[in-house]
Amino acid sequence: EQNVNNIKxxxxxxxxxxxxxxxxxxxxxxxxxxxxxxxSEVHGFEKPNDEQALKLMNSCAVSVLEExxxxxxxxxxxxxxxxVLKGSSQLYQRRASEIVSAICLFFTATYVMKWKEFxxxxxxxxLPNFDGRAVCYPTYEIIRDYLAWRQxxxxxxxxYNTCFWxxxxxxxxxxxxxxxxxxxxxxxxxxxxxELFGIDYSMLPIMFRNGSCVFWDxxxxxxxxxxxxxxxxxxxxxxxxxxxxxFWEAHxxxxxx
Length: 257
Ligand code: ATP
Ligand code: ATP
Ligand code: MG
Ligand code: MG
Ligand code: MG
Ligand code: MG
Description:
Elements: H1 9-13, E1 26-33, H2 36-42, H3 51-67, E2 71-77, E3 80-85, H4 96-118, E4 130-137, H5 140-169, H6 174-181, H7 186-197, H8 206-210, E5 212-222, E6 228-238, H9 246-250
Antiparallel strand pairs: 1-3, 1-4, 2-3, 2-5, 5-6
The chain binds adenosine-5'-triphosphate (2 copies) and magnesium ion (4 copies).
């Protein structure tokens, strides 16, 4: 017969395995909507880009930055968001599962709460789900490469999807559209858009082409005794190119620690 009074907490805790993030290392928590292909159909999202749905994602990301102080930058596209946690963060003593679940669920709850604000004419018919993972990126170059990789992915997908949906909307079957685009390079896709549909890809909304960046608008100030002080103002959303150096040179404080 088991006596609960004899169960020692140290013994039960032996079975607990805490995966901790590497110390002093930038960590990306990337969340991605589960089955959003279907979720977007059920809710009649405009294809290929529903602007209001993207703005809802961005607004949720702003809330995440306001809630979790150690998140210094976020990049979002489609149904995904990458949140960059600064290397010195001690959030949940760097226990990965707590960090991922807290951010994922905060984002999901905010998405549900703000749905009406961004898509007032649409009923939320099923619950959105986001999965999440944490990956550590040990150097400045590698975290920059990670972010560039996501933005390159945004470019490639958006260009493909823009062509695909123009072909479908003009009467092609999805199969015909797929086979027309199979193996085409960037130039050929731009050609299809301009020749068949009179669309200049570079004139499409920048949020669709570049995705969205979310960060604290910081300011550097030199005080009387020469100390550089930082003032956090507010969280901003923009659609900068984060592949080139310009953005990072203009915002040197974002990835400083
Ligand atoms: P998984 O569960 O594996 O992530 P998924 O169906 O969510 O599957 P993704 O690769 O994550 O697939 O792609 C997300 C899909 O959601 C896109 O292909 C697109 O169809 C849809 N989607 C997401 N956001 C929007 C949006 N703002 N406007 C239109 N469609 C969107
Ligand atoms: P942490 O973020 O570390 O989990 P916490 O404040 O959530 O901090 P817990 O140790 O998880 O602390 O304890 C949950 C607390 O929530 C309880 O101490 C209690 O005060 C409160 N609480 C939870 N459920 C109820 C409930 N049904 N009725 C009243 N109080 C509750
Ligand atoms: Mg997924
Ligand atoms: Mg998805
Ligand atoms: Mg996705
Ligand atoms: Mg707890």
